[in-house]
Design brief:
Four copies of one chain form a homotetramer. Chain A contains 13 helices and 18 strands. Chain A is of the alpha/beta class. The model of chain A has no long low-confidence stretch (mean pLDDT 97). At the A-B interface, strand 14, strand 15, helix 11 and strand 16 of A face strand 14, strand 15, helix 11 and strand 16 of B.
């Protein structure tokens, strides 16, 4: 089958590899119809992880069930399914408690596995024609028949990662109806956090970034764009909230955070959030931070540390929640909102490419080239 | 009246000052029977805050109602009451939401006021014969008649701060029945966190410190003492939890954190907690951190920052909650447990001194002199 | 001042009564600009309560602050305020826990007080020119200056009762994003529950009634009208939910529940809800039920009992929450949604009458006359 | 193998039946070491359900893993395991949300399955030498090696049902530290609710019954026995709570509720609870109620209805949660408390019988014969 293979920093190729297949009786095999390039793929693309060359990328996947293992009871051949990027067993202590992003079975001794991802287990990615899905009954999200329509897939595929991840940011932050919310980062995840806060009836959703094209997308769903290249984002948030700060904040950038001059400072968004959010407020962090980063520009960052404004954080009595989204906590409900026509996450899609054009997609998306906000790949196209 | 007055770093005097009195119709005047020296008083005592000389200290107070203002409906003269260290109005946005430690009325434009405390408003402390209690109907916790007994007061006075603060640590951490819990710091607050975790039916409560006398107190209520002078506390926690880490962790030390060699490192406990607590775990921070600390030994610390292990924190998907305890959230229930004989926080009291001996008490408690675990002052004695 | 006085069953008069005035230092006096007739006023109007003749009605009130007591710190003369129908002290055990509908101070030995309401304390109502507001700092909700505009008042006045009450129904039921929700009753409260469920991103909101004009209002905000005169509402809900039942249900009718043939059966909505809601689902009950009802048509009802389908309720593992709304839990956030233009509860208002036409308003609203969906009174008009 | 077979009302026989065996690749086969007679078995024993003659009873089971299916990854032969009475798939909508008592896969079109239980699917019970456990990786709770000890089994076997069920009662009621709690019923489940409330640091736990031997067991763990044969239990609760009522209440009896004169009134405990619990309080119902009961003594009861005091329930703003316990929500934590020596549920065991004496055990337990509080069967003895 054709697949997108990582061959080292900024080196992506579409190659022929061995077909994915059923390996265990609990597996499901999915013929991928739609698969996205994710912002977190770029950490690997940039060589800022220890991803092994030769592996197939892709953790935002959906498709049609091609085959099921002998122990699979629920999922049937021919059904359309969306796959959470988390690979989870469903029966370990963490899965049972809903922490499917921290499954203890699928990537020991770590917690949490994913398709085609550094440090997240040996699983092959879905930027390919076929994908093996472990524990298929647990991991497959059934989609309605309309998901056969390629246009509808642009919405449903977002259930694999970024829509639940944006939602998770607002859950970790504790966003409630009537809240004022500030979101740092208007990449795909930040935009999904903005959509999520809006669906939760926040009264005010502010999105901070310095990329104009992305801020425009935020504005399209009623969020207030804050252009950090025009002045301190903290000051702008304070002005918009009558000096009080936002009730809740979301970090949707991660350790490779750049200021408007494109300098990387890994503590930038976290400290901005502490300042932008009110006393007693909550902060959700879904942007990726890593335990070590030998190629980082700053000393602390190499050790995975940041110079964090603990004094204000504590004095303000704030809370922060972090980590990868437990996709299964949210994907059924969000699917139902898509089906009911109440959420349309596809508004951020800028490019729909055949799988063979993946290298082009990676290049432009990585460069944050204007207008390249979200790239969807079509293995069957 | 006699009162304990701060006269500059490590300079405490008992002086005659003007009597506290009713100033507003919502005030209550309390004749103090029992008032404690708190670990957070030591930040002021050490000159590590901008406390103004001449002010009366003391925020852990209880006593008998001596007089009530004209608008006071609930509290009656002669009742025994315990006063939360927080001074709160009861009607601002934060108080209504239960965040009485962050009252927007009593110390504008900051959030939160306290008796005799740096940066927490102009209120006089209760290490004195009389105390003015603003918004008396809201702030006074009624005690049962047995609270007239000086022995019982040793339990009830702990409701003013450290018992609710220790409880708050476990609430912020999310301690639940069956949990394994690690607590950094076996000072009075850490010990109260250990008591709280025990009352919540944690299966395992570990307390880390290097002061033997305090670790012994932890052991007395069934906690497991971890002596950090005998090896990495993280390793010891890992061993006790089968390599998984504790479910939840509590920070009960704050920015003036010392290693077993008595060197101060403001990030020590936070980074130990990140390592000691499991994937998906929660951390509660009630040890004080300050926005700036010009006299600090480390560069980052001067700015109120710490070198924080954000990489592991995020990778493990942990949560952290911080800040002063909203005492009123817990003090009724904890009072009822004391009255029912189900909690006895006085076990940590080492010294009961007349008010006039306060300077002695401060000196020994500040030096962590052996056996000086908690000092109670008796203005009437 | 002029006021709407209850003179016995179906006998309402506008009379001159003594002016409301400041009686205690914590009081605030409000000049009423807008005050509504509530569905629960009709229980009194119909003589189905033990309301004393001679009392002034009206618990859905807003206006301008005319005077403040000496102990009032927050509220200022000239401010526009909306008053929760609950009269609460702010410092009793229940108020502190957020249960302001069950204040232990304002109506002892019962829990909970209201303006102009049977069994809810001696307080005079606000269908009058002036209203005395006890514990003014706690009970007044400040409105933005635009609330001086009579048109805007049609939205803001709903914060006194029915918007928070409808919201409360969805809170008690546990409505979450993505849920399917069924609401029994499309009177003003039922419609507000529908609006609330919509704001919470329910995927499907069904409203059951047999009054066409009210069902049309539900349809206007995107809810699905279920006409119970056309067949079993349970069957209709089952059909719309693929045989599973709704995730959550709301009771917005109460004990005077009528079937499409206008026969009263006090257990009708509760048992319909048990059947309409899925296994594990939640039900919120804000429709009024009373401890005794000597004039009721059914034997059980006279004792305040209903023949309740406990078997299915338990077998399905459902939850039910009940009671009057704690308005202060919700009114700030809902006010902010109105100000931000994200909620417009005035869409249900059918009639704006001067105070003198209150008797006409009561008569038509009580008869459920077509088109009389919500009556607003203007004392100043 | 030998097994306890239901042969019609009050007719239980120990017979030889076909060995239980692995039927699906996800099955686990367990050799039962310990299995209890449950109070809910008595509804079947009494002929008050539609249990089919010939079926094997027993849903409180533990034992040693004898064999595992080909798709089982976690559970190994030789491990000691305890089986939740719920049979759940782990991947349906309800299981994912933690509602394993309402699994949508194992007993369609109903929700929820159990071993050897009327209306809960075709599964054979564990009062036998061997038990087939579907979805073994999900349903088996691993026990520590000490569970090989028959004495320790008396604690661990309680994790299959009554300890989690008693805990569930307190969860549904919302029992929190410092609460006053009243429990109706001092059968095994009521006693476990009392233990659970105690572990949650309730300040006062009251248990209502008229069986002296059972009340004595309640007293043994510090609960206050309330003998309803000596006067109204509601009055006694009111007296013990200063006229306020308990904060929370638990129903641990069910529809076959008897007054002290041994007359059955299916609404007795529910209405007592409404009266005994305070305004705003919560009630948890784990006693069984059934949708229909043709052999019931009362008319309403035949239809599964009760004459419920809805008026007071609503007026007091109470909440009620119901249904079978989702055992997996609690059994890991409770197991850990047993292992840590912090909970010892075996204190209620009165009889340990070989399987062959099961008929004797059923007879005495059903008769509530003095001293027969909990019967444990040993198939291997």
């Amino acid at each position: 089958m054709k697949a997108v293979v990582y061959d080292g920093p900024r080196n992506i190729k579409v190659k022929n590899v061995a077909d994915a297949k059923i390996e265990k009786p609990t597996d499901v095999l999915v013929r991928i119809t739609t698969t996205n390039i994710c912002g977190s793929d770029l950490h690997m693309y940039d060589g800022r992880t220890d991803m092994e060359p030769g592996r197939v990328l892709g953790h935002e996947n959906m498709g049609e069930v091609a085959e099921v293992g002998k122990a699979v009871d629920r999922i049937k051949i021919g059904e359309m399914v969306c796959l959470p990027f988390n690979i989870a067993c469903g029966f370990c202590r963490n899965c049972e408690a809903g922490f499917t992003a921290f499954c203890l079975t699928t990537n020991p001794p770590m917690a949490g596995a994913a398709y085609g991802f550094a440090d997240m287990g040996p699983y092959s990615g879905g930027q390919a024609e076929l994908l093996r899905v472990p524990y298929g009954d647990f991991n497959c999200l059934r989609l309605p028949p309309e998901a056969k329509d390629p246009e509808k897939q642009l919405d449903y595929v977002m259930l694999s990662d970024i829509f639940p991840t944006g939602w998770h940011a607002t859950e970790l932050a504790g966003v409630a109806p009537g809240d004022s919310v500030v979101i740092y980062g208007s990449g795909p995840v930040g935009l999904m956090a903005a959509l999520s806060a809006t669906l939760k009836s926040a009264r005010q959703v502010m999105v901070v970034d310095h990329h104009q094209d992305r801020l425009k997308l935020a504005e399209k769903i009623g969020a207030i764009p804050i252009d950090e290249s025009k002045g301190s984002p903290v000051d702008q948030v304070m002005k918009l909230t009558g000096g009080k700060g936002a009730d809740k904040g979301c970090e949707c950038v991660g350790y490779q955070c750049h200021d408007p001059q494109e300098q990387e400072h890994s503590n930038l968004t976290m400290n901005h959030l502490v300042r932008s959010v009110k006393f007693t407020g909550g902060i959700g962090v879904v942007g990726v931070f890593v335990p070590k980063d030998p190629n980082a520009p700053e000393e602390l960052e190499k050790k995975g540390e940041i110079a964090f404004d603990m004094g204000w954080f504590w004095f303000k009595g704030q809370r922060v929640g972090t980590g990868q989204a437990n996709v299964k906590r949210y994907n059924r409900q969000l699917r139902d909102l898509i089906t009911a026509g109440k959420a349309k996450p596809s508004w951020i899609v800028s490019h729909k490419l055949p799988l063979t054009e993946a290298p082009e997609g990676y290049k432009h998306f990585d460069a944050r080239d204007k207008g390249w906000t979200k790239v969807v790949l079509r293995p069957a196209a």
